[in-house]
Design brief:
Oligomer: heterodimer
Largest sheet of chain A: none
Radius of gyration of chain A: 20 Å
Structural class of chain A: mainly alpha
Structural class of chain B: mainly alpha
Order of helices and strands of chain B: HHHHHHHH
Largest sheet of chain B: none
Low-confidence stretches of chain A: 222-232
Strand content of chain B: under 5%
Helix content of chain A: over 70%
Mean pLDDT of chain A: 84
Number of helices of chain A: 6
């Protein structure tokens, strides 16, 4: 068993523990009933997704500065894992919204900005597929990663200013009973570990998928820049 | 600095002259936006009661898709004749060349909006007010900076027709949200604060123009 398998098993075990805390330890919500238990994973997945997209932002910015191939690989891994967690957030949110709001979807600030987030990073992954791999795709993707990360708070703010029905932040408002808060913080920690492990594994897959080809292409582009320099 | 501005203006003038001589893009876009109104009429069954609530949506749909075509075309002609490489080989800064092309594409889109807004007033009976024009112009500035940056980046990608809308449309949403609100208020379809919407549009314009000019330096130097 290599270190990736061990990390994966550890992360899954932590998520099972979190599930135990969510279903056995946390009290049932007085108003919403058992549906409220979606909250723990829903919010944790959203925070993990933001974390992944922060990796995309930083990786993209580093790539634009010094064309580091490993920064680009981290960005690619972060985008894919972040998209998975955004999907989890959206689907769980819709499952919660149906019994509580009476509808799967409404054009609320948080819902709209999360959907836009999903579309931007789905576009990010499509760029990687449609543009020729290498410098061109990495540069376009880096710019998408930077603008995407900035666009989401902007969308969120502009829709909030317009209209919103999503429940406010209960954690900062100190509105959670201690058992619920403990369950939430534990689930969030486990989800963040899971996201980190997924990014690490995905990074390894990107390295293997790039293979010796990118290493050569990277050197070739480096050589090309060196040759081009005196001409300028 | 003054040199960069001179370069940008020269590039913009070159693009506008080329468009003036060929007259390709603006007539096509003008026809497109009028067709969008006809399609909306049959899709929505427009009458005097529902027109004010539908018109803002039709307006923004037409602008968004006309903008995608305009910004895509701005770099398509350069690519077909491989003239962008030649321009980039000159000592002029790539950011100034980009700014010039963006300026020309924006002006062409504004010409197309000058057809769209009166046509909307004519066919949908919406008020032809300065408030509508102002909101559309402010949104156009920010949308153009983003749209031209992505058009420039994807110009040499094989699947550019797919990538440009895919990448640009989601990033334009803030302008549609706020610009949509401003136009709804101006057309009497919604009661909100027009001034606040306009102030937000100015904020977004500043944010995205500054970001675009920061990023353009890294993206357009080859």
């Amino acid at each position: 068993m290599n270190k990736f398998a061990a990390a994966a098993i550890g992360a899954v075990a932590l998520m099972v523990l979190a599930a135990g805390a969510i279903f056995l330890f946390a009290p049932t919500d007085a108003l919403q009933g058992p549906v409220q238990r979606i909250f723990y994973l829903h919010v944790s997945a959203a925070i993990a997704a933001y974390g992944c997209f922060a990796v995309v932002l930083v990786g993209g910015a580093i790539y634009l500065r010094n064309e580091s191939i490993s920064a680009d690989r981290f960005a690619r891994s972060g985008a894919l894992v972040g998209l998975v967690f955004t999907t989890v957030t959206l689907v769980m949110g819709m499952l919660w919204a149906k019994p509580i709001w009476g509808t799967f979807w409404t054009w609320d600030a948080r819902l709209t900005s999360t959907l836009v987030l999903w579309i931007i990073y789905a576009g990010y992954l499509l760029v990687r597929r449609l543009a020729e791999p290498g410098r061109q795709a990495a540069r376009i993707a880096a710019v998408v990663g930077i603008f995407g990360f900035i666009d989401v708070p902007v969308v969120h703010f502009s829709v909030t200013w317009w209209r919103t029905v999503h429940p406010g932040p209960v954690i900062v408002n100190d509105a959670l009973p201690p058992e619920m808060l403990a369950t939430f913080l534990f689930t969030m920690a486990c989800t963040l570990v899971l996201a980190a492990v997924m990014i690490a594994i995905r990074y390894r897959i990107e390295v293997l998928a790039d293979g010796p080809v990118t290493a050569v292409a990277g050197q070739a582009s480096l050589a090309a820049t060196r040759e081009a320099e005196p001409v300028r | 600095m003054t040199n960069s501005i001179a370069v940008a203006l020269a590039v913009a003038r070159k693009d506008l002259t080329a468009e003036w001589r060929t007259r390709e893009l603006v007539p096509a876009l003008a026809q497109f936006v009028v067709l969008a109104l006809i399609i909306a009429n049959f899709g929505f069954q427009i009458d005097s009661r529902n027109a004010p609530s539908i018109a803002p949506g039709v307006l923004w749909l037409a602008i968004v898709f006309a903008g995608l075509v305009a910004f895509g075309r701005a770099f398509a002609a350069e690519r077909e004749q491989a003239s962008l490489e030649a321009m980039l080989m000159t000592p002029a800064s790539p950011t100034a060349i980009f700014a010039g092309k963006a300026l020309a594409a924006t002006l062409l889109l504004i010409v197309c909006e000058a057809v769209l807004i009166p046509a909307l007033a004519l066919f949908f009976g919406t008020p032809l007010s300065a408030a509508v024009v102002f909101a559309v112009l402010l949104a156009t500035i920010g949308m153009a900076s983003l749209g031209c940056l992505f058009a420039a980046m994807v110009a040499r990608v094989r699947a550019r027709e797919l990538l440009l809308p895919l990448l640009t449309l989601p990033l334009w949403i803030p302008f549609i949200v706020v610009g949509g609100q401003a136009v709804q208020v101006a057309m009497g379809a919604s009661s909100g604060s027009y001034d606040q919407a306009l102030a937000l549009l100015v904020d977004f314009d500043i944010l995205f123009v500054v970001l675009t000019s920061l990023v353009a330096r890294f993206v357009l130097d080859e």
